[in-house]
Specification:
It is a single chain. The chain is of the alpha/beta class. It folds into three domains: about 70 residues; about 350 residues, Alpha-Beta Barrel (TIM Barrel); about 120 residues, Immunoglobulins (Immunoglobulin-like). It has 17 helices and 26 strands. The strands form seven sheets. It has a ten-stranded mixed beta sheet with strand order 12-11-10-9-8-3-2-1-13-14. Strand 24 and strand 25 form a beta hairpin. The longest helix is centred in the N-terminal third of the chain and has 30 residues. The radius of gyration is 30 Å and the shape is globular.
Amino acid sequence: MDREFQSSKNSSRPNGSAIRTFLFRSLMFLRRAHIRTWTGAIFLAFVAGAVSSFLWVVSFDMETESVATVSRPSDLLEVMKRRGCVADGLLSGYGGDTRASVDLINRSECRYLHRALESWLNPPDFELARRTKALITKPDMVYGMFVSEALNTDAEYYSSLENRVLKFSDMCQPESEGFWGVHTCKASFASDEYRAYVRDITRKAMDMGIQSFLFGQIAFQDPDRSGVPGILEDMKEYARSKRMKIAIGAQTNTITDGDYLGLFDYIEGGVGITKDGEIEEKPCASRYESQGWCWALLWNKKYLSRANTVLLHLDWSGIAGDDMSVFAGMSRNDRADVLRKLSEKFNGDPKGKTGFLFPFLATLYDQNGGCYGAKKDSYSPDNRYSCKDEGTMNELLRSIPVVGIDTEKIVSVSEPTRAREASISESGKKEERDDAEFDGQDVPDTMVAGQKYDVSVSMKNTGTTTWSDGLGYRLGSQNPQDNTTWGGRAYIFSGKTVEPKKKITFGFTIAAPEKPGIYDFQWRMLREGQAWFGEESKNKTIEVVPEKETPALPESTKTSSGEIQPSSQETP
């Protein structure tokens, strides 16, 4: 469709030949006109010059526009292939410690962040994405968005384009509800509601500088392969209007239709490494063939020969045995060998069609038993965590041969690089720093299973920022992080602020677990969607006992009916 659009525009715009023809005819007219006065000659020359200048300007403008409408953004794809890193959900708050992930990216050799903005099940949080993107100080970074095949049927989304709320329950493939669990379904390109949703989120993403768009499991979203052309053309038309380059890809698995694959700038999929970290040379991964289906190895000529570009990564599913859980379970030396092998195979040829994306932020099977990042179900190569792979990855990224990358020329001009603006505007200011100190707590040593108790935890603000609910400051559960044993979060009262050197006491009600046993009670401050920070509260072990073992209470603590009277505790 791009080629058709381009040819139609070329047929209607003036080119260099047309301008030369016009000037030649103008000169011939002057010779034949027998102009008898200098005034007349000057006037005709002026008119000829003005018209030719206008045509030249129009031609230049159209030439400039045509650059943005080339069928394949080759320089953009080159960056993605040769300097690509998986940063799944970085702009969406994935990984458990966004600030640490941002710092990792800032000191990395990455120039493309694959799937940085996520839409799995729920709509993207664009405000959070903008705030996080502003913390990334690399001015030439390229960002990617994942347009998920999985939807939350209970979700709603306000579309500024449609000026209405879009209903996810109207976006589903027929008979697909519950595919990924309760209240889920497969997205359908045949749905007007879903197309409106895709149009809105991809335009908002372009507005904030996102340049790569990956459609998840396209066979689910477009089973009859008829919905893609219109959606892609709409996205490209909007990009042309903003004079920005974009690349659109899809997870195509076993699709081999060359015309269909050719619609996408790239196709994407997992490597499918064996338990020993080996790479198979066949169309389908062995570990899934035994289950009766083909999990495509996209570098095989069956797919590669029909695609424009193939991007590969260590796949994840949150299930034991996937690429990332196998990788995380290896020794550090073995992981380095696997990364080196993958980089040599898929990034080694500077003129090749493949690129390997290094895992800087990815999901793990939470019982994998290997190394991990800020959370057990999230991988990070950050040296502050247990994997410590960042040195190996950056070394390999630096060694990849590159042909003609000029990232500053391909980065979107739609948004004047907020990260750059942020770093300049803040360079002369005192660095903002979140920090906290544990100040005390009031919690029982013993609880009765299922009973509710009033507790409190006090924290002191020892950083330079001011805490408030509106800015996302919370008290969050620890040991393990983000557990829901005691409720997960405690909030600051709306309108209240906690300035540096001030203290706050979080008073809240908890319910003891139904199952008797010994439980840990520990908390830490966090800024929602960004990072955990400060000192953890002193860990307290609480014994939860069955109701029948409740020690007898003095009569004064019982009501007339014999029920336990809870204490009234004022919450500051």
